[in-house]
Amino acid sequence: MPETTWVDGDVATVAKLNQIEDQIIVTCTAGTRPTGVEGRRIFETDTNRELLYDGAAWVIMWSPWTAFTPSWTGFSIGDGTEVWKYRYAGGSLEIDGVTTMGSTSSVTSSMRFALPNGATTTAQGICALRLEDTGTTSNSVPGHGRVSGGTSLFLYRSEAGVANVGVSIPFTWAATDVIRLTASIPIY
User: Fold this and answer.
1) I want to staple 19 with a disulfide (CB 3.0 to 4.6 A). Which of 4, 40, 101, 115 is the partner?
2) What is the mean pLDDT of residues 161-175?
3) Do 151 and 187 form a contact (C-beta atoms < 8 A)?
C-alpha cells in the first residue's frame, strides 16, 4: 500500500489524495468497490463485510454470522434439526453448529459436509467436535474435523484411535443423538 508523506508547503493534489484513500478503509457497496490496490481494505455496507485486496483478488477478512444448512455426504437429516452458522474473522472461516438426529435421520457412510459459502482452503485450522449418544448409556465422545480436498470437512472421533464418524462409529446413531462442532479454519 502506498504511503503518503507530507512536508510543509505541499499542495493537496489528486495523486496525494488518492494515496491517502489507499491507506484507509473505504466504505462502499459490492457494486461500487474501488479499484483493487494491494493492501487496500474496504467495508461493504450492503453485505456488512470487510475485504482486503491481496494483489490478485478481494479476500473476505470479516463478516457477520450467517445461518447455513450443511450440505452433507454420508448423512441425511430427515426429520432431525440443524442450527448452523458461519462467519469470516481475521482471515479464517469460523463455523459453529449443532445437529440433532430425528427418527428418520440416517448415517450411511463417513460423515462430511461442504464448507459453507463455497470456501476453499489448504489449511486445517482448529475443529472441536462432540458426539453425544443420548440413549441409555449417555455417552459423549470427543472428535475433530479435518479439511479434505480443500472443500469438505470430514468428522472423526478422537478416542480409542482416530476413525471417520460413520454408520456405527462411535456408536449406533439414533433419534436425539447430537453432533456439536466449532471450527476456525484459515482461508488461503
Assistant:
1) 4
2) 88
3) no
